[in-house]
Amino acid sequence: MKIGLRIMTWSGAALLLLIISVTGSLSIGSAGMPVAKVWAILVHQLPFFESSEPGWTPLEEAIVTQVRLSRIVLAVLVGACLGMAGAGFQGVLRNPLADPYTLGVASGSSVGAALVMTLGLQAVLGMWTVPAAAFAAGTLTVLTVFMLARSQGQMAVETLILSGVILQAFLGSFVSLMISMSDDEVNQILFWVMGSLAKRTWDHALLVLPFLAAGLPVIAAFASAMNLLALGERHAAHLGVHVERTKLIVLLASTLMTAAAVSVSGVVGFVGLVVPHLVRLLVGPDYRLIVPLSAIGGGIYVIWADTLARTALSPKEIPLGVLTALVGAPFFAYLLRRRKAGTGEG
Amino acid sequence: MERTVGKNRRWIQYTALAAAVLLLAMLLAACGSNDDEANGNANAGPQTEEAGHSGANAGGSGEDAASGEDAGNGASGGNSGTGAETDYPLTVTDATGVDITLDQAPERVVMLVPSDTEIVYAIGAGELAVGADAYSDYPPEAAGLPRVGDVNTNIEAVAALNPDLVLASSSMNAAAVDSLRQLGIKVYASDPQTLEETIAHIERLGVLLNRQAEAQAVTDSMRADMQFVADKVKDAEPVTVYLEFSPGWTVGTGTFLDDLVTQAGGVNIATAQPGWYEVDSEAVISQNPQVILYPQIDGVDFLEGILSRPGWEQIDAVKNDRVHGVKNDPLVRVGPRLTDGLLDIAAAIHPDLFP
């Protein structure tokens, strides 16, 4: 099983990089603790090492094991959801410019969140009001796109993308309207649309985890089908792929993961677009590799973007979505240039 | 394939048609409201000319102007000991560095920020107010004023009211201030950053609007409150305070909230940065504030958000149950109620001194 070995090797390497990233990010923060102390605190958490005399305050321990760790775990989960959903969208839409937001999840979620904020209903379900509204509105938007694009039991890829783009523009104008009507000193809607992992809790991570855990095997199971889809839907169908079923299931799974991620983090852009492309550059066009590696790669990407967000102007936070796009946009331009240079199909 | 393409195209056509119809409808609506504005202007024109006339004749026939004069006279007569009459023409320099000359006491005043509305009513100049921004909800009398937009000021709506003075914030209404001045409307812009500056601003408005005695009474009471708090907290241990006025956002140096916390006998922990900013969670924890303050705003549950953050259970303020809500409006409006906010904060920081 050559491919099996390749998956193991690459995933192993990626997981190692992920662990290094987590430890590295844990060591950095505005509290300005020396790295040695951070590591002592971490080692202290491991079984068999608890006995040593702690040389730090409970406050410092809370900063490492609660504040930083919870945020990093959430960054990994959000990044993994977005990275894998991006791979899924690009795979079935057979479009290199597709990303988790192509079919309007982000715009829909933004309308949901903005509506709740504009009407001042943030506390109806406690701290879960905004995530719940965002998730529901985002999922609903994609279902609307499916309905718009569906004809005679089929969803043509072009129609899907077009419907998504149109609905995005339509919903985007509602968000702009609500932003312009807002009177707060801090425009909550604007900052939600820019995405952030600041001031989240362990519960936020627990909310995203099941979506990732359920979505990963589903999308991985369709990796071979997505490889064949790259040949074109008709060819794939001849080779035994249930084209419509593959599209529907992969898009639904990707949408749910994206909606879960967006509902807790706001709109974090470019991760889902850039990470699958980066992975593709490294390992080639095989989706059996792209899908798991995009998940891990997304996690790493968001960890470092968020580390930058919380430390670059410390103690001031920078919106996460600003930074992911700041790194992602030049890469996007580079991709476009490469395509223009005539490397053929992307 | 052929079919879907055909469908696509038809769909685009429908969408384009719908968009065109929508656009047309909006255009028509805009024209309609333009007409209304124009009519309003046409009506307002002669009226204000009349008002100007009666003002010039001091005690003329215009009903509004006459009652305004009476109120002014009555008030200044009652307080003749403390307040002086303003001499017009009066030239003042505002926060934008522009000289504004008032030839006579303003009679039609529009306020673009709620704090100025509160001041105008507090110094007994409410009868001069002819319009305000959408958030001017205090005092209750201000609720009936014609609205001239929110943070985005509707320039036409202001012009239609034909004000002889517009009060604005140089930071929040910067664009509107320029636009109004281009129309030849007199705008006095301010931007008080501390309690002292707020008091000075109130007294300045007392001069501008010829309500010096009333303004003096307001600021005397504010100064008394400040002194009351200063006397109480002067020997108290300074208390470290984290102030969160929007979820995750705090205030740094150079803000009136920072000033209030300091005057209330507290030490703001977030002075590493100027202005208002979203603060990193671990920066708050490592400072370990003794008190956490948040504003009480309808529909936002600050407390749950603060208490559920990972690691925050280790902060002294949370451990000792010293996370307090304070009334929002007096704190965020640089007006006469700012010292109410000061008292509120002081009581939260030093509950033993303010029973």
Which strand order spans the largest sheet of chain A, edge to edge or round the barrel? 2-3
Order of helices and strands of chain A: HHHHEHEEHHHHHHHHH
Question: What's the SSE pattern of chain B?
Answer: HHEEEHEHEHEHHEEHEEHEHHEHH
Biggest pleated sheet of chain A: 2 strands, antiparallel
Describe the global form of chain A: globular
- CA radius of gyration of chain B is 25 Å
Oligomer: heterodimer
Q: Assign the structural class of chain A, choosing from mainly alpha, mainly beta, alpha/beta, alpha+beta, or little secondary structure.
A: mainly alpha
Any idea what the radius of gyration of chain A is? 21 Å
Percent of residues in helices of chain B comes to 40-55%
Helix share bin of chain A: over 70%
Q: Could you list the spans of chain A in which at least 5 consecutive residues all have pLDDT below 50?
A: none
